[in-house]
Amino acid sequence: MSMAQQNAVELHDVVVRYGGTVAVDRVSLTAARGRVLALLGDNGAGKTSLVQVCTGFRRPDGGVARVLGLDPVAEHDALTPRLGLMAQSGGMYPWATAGEILDLFASFAARPLDAAMLVDRLGLGSVTGTRWRRLSGGEQQRLALAVALVGRPEMVFLDEPTAGMDTAARHTTWRLVEELRADGVSVLLTTHLLDEAERLADDVVIVRSGAVVATGTPGQLTAAAGVDRLVVRAQPGLPVPDVAVRAAGGGPPAAVSEDAPGEYTVDGELDAEAIASALAWFAAVGARVTAVNTRRRTLEDVYLSLTAPAVPGLRVNG
Amino acid sequence: MSGTFVPAPGRASARAVVARQIRMELTLTARRGEAVVLAMGVPLLVLLGAGLTRATNLPTGDRIGFVAPGVLALTVMSTAFTGQAITTGYERGYGVLKRLGASPLTRPGLLAAKTVAVLMLVCVQLLVLTAVATAVGWRPDWARLVPAAGVTVLATAAYCGLALVLASLLKPETTTAAATLIYVLMLAGGGIMFAAPDLGTVGWFLLPLAAHAQALREALTAGRPIPGVLWLSLGAWAVAALITAARTFRWE
Q: Which helix (H) or strand (E) covers residue A76, if one does?
């Protein structure tokens, strides 16, 4: 009970099937209260199915889901006033105006936010009198976000929130999400945009083919699978050592390899000493160094390594 | 700036929620011109065409006394069944119902809002049509207004339920086609501008439109009590339709 109340979302071994297809395969994840969790994955990875389970639109075919301590299906009516949902597309009366739609959802809440403030914050001032079907994709997305927030929810689900938004709207949305977190709102967002996850998320869950393949903070994920990398340009054919270069005072090993003629990479947990000893090795073998670059492994590197097909170029059916 | 989004969740009072949803339903209905024309235009044409001219054969000399109650019944069906089925089908298709399902509006709240909105719409339409019918010579027996209103509420509930069932089972386009087809078939064969096929008591149970029209004729034109079989038919349709609707209704 106390665990359930501490966490915004708890999924245990959740399974979702569509006919014979398994869309979500025993997914377990936890979203802490007051934090932003990004569900990162390609189209078809099962992100939207998980949101459907969390918002009570799908009873999981296996496993247990708890949102704010409640069963999203059995206790749907108790949950809905506490949630905000920004669905991926549609979901509004095509012939109602943006202002009417926002007012309708505001009127469902006990203590709604000021609709005019939201309209202003999301740059919808010029389209409040425009019918939903005449709004651009980005305007529809911004209105959907306003509708998700207007009831002052404890938790919001944002399914691909910035899809179809221009750069300015995307940044507005990002700032809003940061503000939500600062105000103690729990956020679960799905995205396939790595920069979005890296910038916004406290926690990232990477899903692939309906299963969780990695969980952690962006820092943990980039550090766990990755390292800083040193890229050094010099003449080709230096005698790359078989064994790793080791800093004088011990420390972790750093492997040197020649990836392309004249382009050497040094991989490892490179602290200042390790970098110094790596460069000392280049000096010792008489390298004529023309460039030294450091590169920090990004979430993208992690994501690609985790979601790439197991055997490149080989397609396995089923 | 911070502090704006500090959570303060809660549902407005059930009455406020349903009242706002009713307002939205009525606003959108008024905005869809073709629905209003279908709901009012066709019954008016039938009323004036079949009621005032000898365009069709009727089983009585009191043409307007036969046609006017039938037209009222037809209007109830057109609004509560055809219009409601098409609207709900498209609302499902557009994902509106799903989005409302994630809002503090509950399922009973939505069904109540839809039913009340339809009843209000039906009231206005019946007032207009009754005014036109009396202007061209219909002399209804106002003493029988209460039983006439009673069978009309039953018929509205039955049609509303059937509309939601249809919209839950079929795709929006198919719902539109099916609801329109049923409307046209009932217009022709439902005992509105022609005599209904004489199937005896069974007929009243097969055709709720014919039963409703006959009940209104008995009460308003003839000034007699409504026969029990008509009450029974419309009551059975209402109960069966609402139970089926509650079981089949889907947000998605």
A: helix A76-79
Are A80 and B104 a contacting pair, CB within 8 Å? yes
Q: Mean of the pLDDT values across residues B208-225?
A: 93
pLDDT(A314) > 50: no
- Structure ipTM: 0.87
pTM, two decimal places: 0.82
Does A90 sit within 8 Å of B104, measured CB to CB? no
Tell me the three state secondary structure of residue A228.
strand
Q: Which residue has the tokens 């920090």?
A: A296
Mark which residues 170-209 of A lie under 8 Å from B by CB.
179-180, 182-185
Instruction: Tell me the domains of chain A and their CATH numbers.
Output: 2-223 (3.40.50.300), 227-296 (3.30.70)
Q: Which long-range contacts (CB under 8 A, 24 or more apart) does A276-279 make?
A: A276/A247, A277/A245, A277/A246, A277/A247, A277/A248, A278/A230, A278/A232, A278/A245, A278/A254, A279/A232
Asked if B20's CB is within 8 angstroms of A108's CB, the reply is: yes
Q: Determine contact, residues A110/B12, Cβ cutoff 8 Å.
A: yes
For B17, which residue in chain A has the nearest alpha carbon? A108
Q: Are A139 and A131 in contact (CB under 8 A)?
A: no
Partners of residue A69 in chain B, C-beta under 8 Å: none
Tokens of B78: 């057109």
End-to-end CA distance of chain A: 40
With H, G, I as helix, E, B as strand and everything else as coil, classify residue A36. strand
CB distance from A117 to chain B under 8 Å?
A: yes
A100-127 residue pLDDT tens: 999 999 999 999 999 999 999 999 999 9
CB contact under 8 A, B6 and A87: no
User: What is the distance between the alpha carbons of residues A10 and A67, in angstroms, rounded to a whole number?
Assistant: 6
pLDDT band at A229 (very low <50, low <70, confident <90, very high): confident
C-alpha distances out from residue B75 to A17, B82, B116, B181, Å: 44, 10, 16, 15
| Chain B CB contacts of A56 below 8 Å | 102
Q: How far is CA B218 from the centre of its chain?
A: 20
